[in-house]
Design brief:
The complex is a heterodimer of chains A (250) and B (281). Chain A has 9 helices and 10 strands. With 250 residues, chain A is α/β, with parallel strands linked by helices. In chain A, helix 5 packs across helix 6 and helix 6 packs parallel to helix 7. Chain A is globular, with a radius of gyration of 18 Å. Chain B has 281 residues and is an all-alpha fold. Chain B is 77% helix and 0% strand. The chains are: A alpha/beta (250), B mainly alpha (281). Chains A and B meet through helix 2, strand 6 and helix 4 of A and helix 9 and helix 10 of B.
């Protein structure tokens, strides 16, 4: 059964503005590492933000874990978001907060307001955070402030924060675009390994086509809000890439 | 045509143009300056301000000051009684700023466009509250509270509370509007509610700036506290008023001198404290 099923999704930011997504459909199944590729401005980020409704889609259907996402009310939506981890291009950490607190913030959806006020997370959350930080190789940096870390280390904190949620799906919004090529590869491999270990399917925006073909088993190619390609990574070829990027230098 | 121009704009190509003067933007800006100047000239004419006498006034002011206000009666302000009023002024400023800052934190949250719980309802109400606090001068708040509660420290503290709240609410809200929204987005995506996002995503980003603003607010509240007593709301302002009415000019001079010294001290202290806080980043 598909974990995520998107059908005929449309999105625009304002009533008069241009339509960003023009009817996108795809399915993410268990164990998928699903890549969304396409040039800048194709609607990749909008698409990924529609899944957990950081951006409101205008029409279409998103079914996640057997539940229609587009019609959820506010409280139900927060409950749903707990099951979807997200990793961002610019890491989106709180720079003035410790690595530990940044990772623990992934549990906020499960934590009461009172506990949040006193930062009194349950023991098992702290243990979970420590084991994740150990796994991503940051166990020596637990008490450092996030802005003392390098780019690659910050994204590892982002990975740990997302996995803190025990997600059933991971959304990755250009997770490696702010990193240099070598670190990009390391981070991407780490994400892939951990996703496999924890059996979490991933939906990943990615600019680097080569990296996408290495890591992902399925690819959807967007151009100007329209699906140009959809299928297995093996079916992708130079000609189709040229079409998606429309003569843009790869 | 020089060589470097020829390289791009050969014959037959459209001539590229750029002018600093834009129509109508530049014209509007010139007209604005002209209107501002005309208004100033007309106001001076209308109010019948004799420019020549203003210059003469400076000399006379010196004479009066030297004649009536000198020497200041320093002994008078060295009195323990007066010292008590100084302490009362400091207490009033402290309490007023403290209460003002406490009510400001939720107000500033509601009045920040990016984090407000509701842009349609809560945001304009919170903005209106802050603006109302600022619209009424602290002395008018003092008069109002004195007329309701009678003389004493309490109306002074309340006047300073509203003054501090109005002052800090705007600065706090602007600080919240300046934050990096990335972490806020990240926390929304984890299923956190707005309160949790404020605590974990926003507060760490604004904490240092808030501390600086809080110190500044105390400093400004102290300056305001020296004057609310003039209207019966406690503190050294009351001393000032009594001596002004009794035309004890040398004592008035001493009191004004003491206010200047105290305000300078408080400003220096606040500047030092704010620098120390900013170093923490």
């Amino acid at each position: 059964m598909a974990v995520l099923k998107v059908t005929d999704l449309h999105a625009r930011y304002s009533a008069k503005g241009p339509e960003i997504l023009k009817g996108i459909s795809f399915e993410v199944e268990e164990n998928d590492f699903f890549a969304i590729i396409g040039p800048s401005g194709a609607g990749k980020s909008t698409l990924i933000r529609c899944i957990n409704r950081l951006v409101e889609p205008t029409s279409g259907s998103i079914v996640f874990d057997g539940q229609e996402v587009t019609t959820l009310r506010r409280v139900e939506l927060r409950r749903l978001r707990r099951d979807i981890g997200m990793i961002f291009q610019e890491f989106n950490l709180v720079n003035r907060m410790s690595v530990m607190d940044n990772v623990l913030s992934g549990r906020l959806g499960y934590t009461s307001n009172l506990r949040t006020l006193f930062r009194a997370f349950p023991r098992e959350d702290i243990d979970h955070a420590l084991s994740l930080l150990d796994r991503v190789g940051l166990i020596d940096h637990v008490d450092k402030r996030a802005d003392q870390l390098s780019g690659g280390q910050r994204q590892r904190v982002g990975i740990a924060r997302a996995l803190m949620q025990d997600p059933k799906l991971m959304l990755l919004d250009e997770p490696t675009s702010a990193l240099d090529p070598k670190i990009s590869r390391e981070v991407m491999e780490l994400i892939k390994e951990m996703a496999q270990e924890l059996k979490v399917p991933c939906l990943c925006n990615i600019h680097d086509v080569k990296l996408a073909t290495e890591c992902c088993n399925k690819i959807i190619g967007l151009q100007d809000g329209v699906t140009m390609f959809s299928g297995l990574t093996g079916d992708m070829n130079e000609e189709k890439l040229g079409e998606i990027y429309a003569m843009e230098v790869l | 045509m020089s060589n470097r121009m020829a390289a791009f704009g050969g014959p037959g190509k459209k001539k590229l143009e750029w002018r600093r003067f834009r129509y109508p933007e530049s014209l509007v800006s010139y007209a604005g300056w002209l209107i501002a100047f005309t208004v100033v000239v007309f106001s001076i004419e209308y109010l019948n301000i004799p420019l020549d006498r203003i210059l003469g006034m400076l000399g006379r002011m010196g004479d009066i000051l030297a004649d009536r206000y000198y020497p200041p009666d320093i002994e008078y302000i060295m009195d323990m009684d007066y010292f008590g009023y100084v302490v009362e002024t400091i207490q009033m400023a402290y309490l007023g700023a403290l209460f003002g800052l406490i009510i400001t934190i939720p107000i500033a949250w509601f009045a920040s466009f990016n984090m407000t719980p509701s842009r349609r309802f809560v945001y304009p109400v919170a903005r209106l509250f802050g603006m109302s606090c600022r619209a009424v001068h602290e002395t008018i708040w003092a008069i109002l509270f004195v007329s309701i509660l009678g003389f004493g420290m309490l109306p002074g503290v309340l006047a300073l509370t509203l003054f501090s709240a109005g002052f800090a609410a705007k600065l706090f809200a602007e600080e919240i509007e300046r934050i990096d929204m990335g972490p806020v987005e990240a926390m929304r995506s984890t299923g956190a509610n707005l309160f949790q996002i404020m605590l974990f995503g926003v507060w760490p980003q604004v904490r240092v700036a808030f501390t600086g603003i809080a110190i500044y607010t105390w400093d400004v509240a102290f300056r305001a506290a020296t004057v609310v007593g003039f209207f019966g709301a406690g503190g050294m302002g009351w001393y000032l008023k009594r001596n002004v009415l009794q035309i004890e000019t040398e004592r008035v001079a001493a009191i004004i001198l003491s206010i200047i010294v105290l305000v300078i001290i408080s400003e220096a202290l606040s500047a030092w404290a704010r620098r120390a806080v900013m170093k923490m980043k």
